[in-house]
Amino acid sequence: MADTHPKNYRAPAQCPVCGGSMKITRLQCGHCGTEINGAFSPCRFCTLEEKHLQFVETFLRCRGSIKEVEKALGISYPTVKNMLDNALAALGLDEKPELRAVRQEEERSEILARLAQKEIDVDTAIEALNQLRGGK
What we know:
Blueprint: E1 24-28, E2 35-40, H1 50-61, H2 66-73, H3 77-91, H4 97-116, H5 122-132
Antiparallel strand pairs: 1-2
């Protein structure tokens, strides 16, 4: 079966209606057409905005040398550092493990409080708690 979609579009990471996280529910082989249905989480890098993805690609191409990134993008050292910090934050890699644990506990408490106040139903709470634990 021939691929009828010549251009590959990036899947949106956030819902354009409510801002929630999008899930991938179908995968298809471009060669034979085999399809798999289910709930798949995109890779961490797939959820990056284009500007962060381009920076990460440049950073990797420059083998992590901030001076080389400066030259490649024609920007200053502080701007490179700021872009690196922003990319790390977008990937969720900017927090120390202790701070991440505190933040996750606060989010867990918020989810349970919303459930207790009937702002969300049990299924929504379970899904949110599972996402908090990394989709387990």
